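As agreed, record passed on underneath.
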Amino acid sequence: MKKIVYIILAIALFPALGSAQDTELTRVYNKYVDKPGFSSSEVLPGSTSFDWEKENDTDHIRAIIQDIDAIRVLTYKGSEAKISKEDFDKKIEKALDKGDYTEVLSASVGDGYIRLFMLKEAEEDLKEVAMVMQGEEETMMITATGIFDLSKILNKETMVELSHLKGDCKHEDHHDHEELK
């Protein structure tokens, strides 16, 4: 009898658990993740520790990170892909339209453009944040899924913790603040 109850609970809860990451852009990622002509990466930040956590009080940042289910990067490389870049770009556009994403930023960069999208879950929460970068020969899609509580992200404590994080900038155009004064 207990086994039947557990099976019924598992069947009832499985769709709810699976739908947390089930977005239109996640479907695009899953379709092309292991196809020739694409490179991909997936990070599960909630189960990852970071070096900066050892030196700083990061309870508010950790709470935000725990809410992230996954960060996914999918890049169309084209040379071996069985789909043209134009058709792949259309698949992304169709997913954005079907998923009711809101474009919040668009910028031209070099031979292409970058666009930032958000998918709302509720009035104050975001379900997904996505950046799509499209150039002449390459398209890259970066998504972060989870439940992003904006009140957690945009509060004073989180901003103070972020301001105390230190990191090395590897960009060759980096200048020290002293040089800029």
Observations:
- DSSP finds eight helices and six strands in the chain.
- Helices lie at 2-18, 24-32, 52-55, 59-66, 85-98, 150-153, 156-164, 177-180.
